[in-house]
Hints:
The complex is a heterodimer.
Chain A: H1 15-42, H2 57-68, H3 70-81, H4 88-113, H5 121-124, H6 131-155, H7 164-175, H8 177-200, E1 212-213, E2 216-217, H9 218-246, H10 253-288, H11 304-322, H12 325-328, H13 331-358, H14 374-397, H15 404-411
Helix pairs in contact in A: 1-14, 2-4, 2-13, 3-4, 3-8, 3-9, 4-6, 4-14, 6-7, 6-8, 8-9, 9-10, 9-13, 10-11, 10-13, 11-13
Chain B: H1 12-44, H2 48-59, H3 68-71, H4 90-98, E1 115-116, E2 119-120, E3 126-127, E4 132-136, E5 142-146, H5 148-154, E6 157-161, E7 168-169, E8 174-180, E9 183-188, E10 193-198, E11 205-211, H6 227-242, H7 261-264, H8 270-277
Antiparallel strand pairs in B: 1-2, 3-4, 4-5, 5-11, 6-8, 7-10, 8-9, 10-11
Helix pairs in contact in B: 6-8
Amino acid sequence: xxxxxxxxxxxxxxxxxxxxxxxxxxxxxxxxxxxxxxxxxxxxxxxxxxxxxxxxxxxxxxxxxxxxxxxxxxxxxxxxxxxxxxxxxxxxxxxxxxxxxxxxxxxxxxxxxxxxxxxxxxxxxxxxxxxxxxxxxxxxxxxxxxxxxxxxxxxxxxxxxxxxxxxxxxxxxxxxxxxxxxxxxxxxxxxxxxxxxxxxxxxxxxxxxxxxxxxxxxxxxxxxxxxxxxxxxxxxxxxxxxxxxxxxxxxxxxxxxxxxxxxxxxxxxxxxxxxxxxxxxxxxxxxxxxxxxxxxxxxxxxxxxxxxxxxxxxxxxxxxxxxxxxxxxxxxxxxxxxxxxxxxxxxxxxxxxxxxxxxxxxxxxxxxxxxxxxxxxxxxxxxxxxxxxxxxxxxxxxxxxxxxxxxxxxxx
Amino acid sequence: xxxxxxxxxxxxxxxxxxxxxxxxxxxxxxxxxxxxxxxxxxxxxxxxxxxxxxxxxxxxxxxxxxxxxxxxxxxxxxxxxxxxxxxxxxxxxxxxxxxxxxxxxxxxxxxxxxxxxxxxxxxxxxxxxxxxxxxxxxxxxxxxxxxxxxxxxxxxxxxxxxxxxxxxxxxxxxxxxxxxxxxxxxxxxxxxxxxxxxxxxxxxxxxxxxxxxxxxxxxxxxxxxxxxxxxxxxxxxxxxxxxxxxxxxxxxxxxxxxxxxxxxxxxxxxxxxxxxxxxxx
Lengths: 412, 281
């Protein structure tokens, strides 16, 4: 039915099976859109957030998907600027994942901040002293870059390629990709950093507050590094997942191994700096603010296990695994290590968002608990569904994996 | 300086932050505009054919980019990196200088050796890797056609879209389009020249071309002893293109390819097979 739109030389599931996969996700998307529309129409009273607990599931989701989306800028940077040609087979999928992650984050922010028709206020009345303003500006520019990077992929669709103007535009745009890759790296460095930095400057929240390095708190650099470590792992995990779901080999093993190695090296650097940062915070920053660090871990839900889990099983273990060449060449272990990296970054964002706000900072403050409302969960689910839909459609109709045809020929 | 920003003040933070932001935004827009301007320039300069060929070649599997000197036994393994354009290939020149290469063969004037794997492949002409051929005529003009394997792949022709007399065709650029009940097959021109006559589906040839000034350069086209190993390789490529997902291509058992493959093999995506075999982007 839709064979004429499917890239030449690759096989995709029958149309009916594709629809059977798409329709449930579309249902989830509609449910989520209903929840989001309630929030936009009725207001944030539809959520379980309040003035005291202002960052909830959505901000946690934002921070996590933006970290995962770092694979797009970092892969582009390594390929186009550092000339690491071995990453060519995954650049397309990295761009699609980046676009999904960043556009999801922006959509959720629209619901979270509310009044999307006034979104332009942030550009008209910028608070140039706020890290969030920098994040907003960078995200806006970077989503434009991601759309431009995605455009040549769309123009590679078999039917578009028959139109000479599209073919030539795709060719010329592709030649200028190093410029966009450099802009993407520049923007991502600052917004990934500022997302972490905005917690580090919360002087009234000693659990999150950190010392400054230059003009930025240490969390600025830790966020950049952790996102750079998580990005390649996310590309690896999703590519492997798509291989399993489609029952096809899409990239060669050495590409997975390269992604794993990059992730492992960056994770090791991150862990070293994170450990130093944590020790400085326990022994200096927090006590000087009047809070012995152990007090934060007296709460039943957030014991020291959470710090241990973040640094050892979700940090040190995957780092050591990914630095080992034998593990990198063993796909199940490699994927396990990459999943542990992602779990570590997810937990880190959870700690900074939810744990930071739960802990009391004044003597009369209670320990706050927060459970998201169904509207928040629905909006969260809609973002996942949107990502699955956009990726599925891209995988079916666009040549995401340039090695796929060659591998299929060899395997036959 | 920054008229869009409300309450802008001449403070370092405002100047640096907003300056960087608008610089980045400007750079994005300029780069995008540059891509657009280059596109317009390329189309006006008729470079779209070259670009299409470059992209098509890049996307070919390495097993489909076998050098002609591997086909004719000059070298054990070599993958072409010059878009099948031997006219500007140093390696090709070196093989010719050695004097033993089959690529130096002179074509025969009589249509001999027409039987090749059950296909009619006369050796009085030159063959392009996209299944078109070139035959020099006695009056100095050149006839251009589709080879027998190509015709069998296309099957019953319903119509053809040919360039008119006076139009220019370029080697590896768009030649003509064949329309059948299974879709549209686009063919590449094997040679540079100006069209002086257009044929039809009932004739052996599709175009009659006057060579460009300086005479026709056909050094990029296959000839003589090179043709048979190429045809054999193309039959293998066709089997891969036709085999279903996960299946292995069946080896030929000595039978003869049918006259109209689309009628014999009721698969849906014949356009995809043509794009693959006729080297389209």
